[in-house]
Amino acid sequence: MRLSCTIIFTAVFLVISCSRPNAPESINQAEEPLQASYNIALLSWDGGQKEADAAERLIKRYRSAADGGVLLFVSGPEKSGARPKSFGEAAMSLAKNDRVRAIVFCPGPAGTSDAVAKIKAMYPSMLCYVAMPREDPLPIQASGADLIISFAPGTVTDEYALCAGLGEYAKTVVDGLAGKDILVALVNEIKEYSMEKNIKARHYLDPESMVYSKNHIELYYGGD
Fold first, then answer.
1. Domains, in order of start, for the chain
2. In angstroms, rounded to a whole number, what is the distance separating the alpha carbons of residues 113 and 195?
3. What SS3 state is found at 127?
């Protein structure tokens, strides 16, 4: 009798075990993806397909803010009334967002220096990075921008490389991982992305006052 009960119990246990859903291979599989604690904003006002492609690359790495990830991509201008109608309005809207820690302007349209100055006046800790400024870089330097990357006159631009590299650099700084060689690493990453393999970089030198500036990198082809 005892043997029969043992056999029956074993059979029932096996049936229950077989009908139970497979357990996850790891604890992480059973959990929802963690919500990012901050956002990096990529503002592409008057940008094109390459800027959108760069945003897509960053989204693949860090996920979109809409899905709980890091990258908040805003493009414009928008004709719809649902989005900001001006570049300055869009920039300030991002600065007011409590989750945004850094804004990458890619490209930096006319009015970038004014937008950065206003943001820095109201939110001094907001990191502002500018790729491909379309106005004189000197006022942008004076506005308090944390880093500007531009191309020397006559150089073929690579918007994809600049936007992706600068977005990743911004995340590195926010994460507190930026070291003294981080700018060299950034340029190397841009070189890796770029279709042109001879891209180089130099720090911008103010031609008027000859004051060495640490917040502007100029990219060019060839030379020392």
1. 35-221 (3.40.50.10550)
2. 30
3. strand
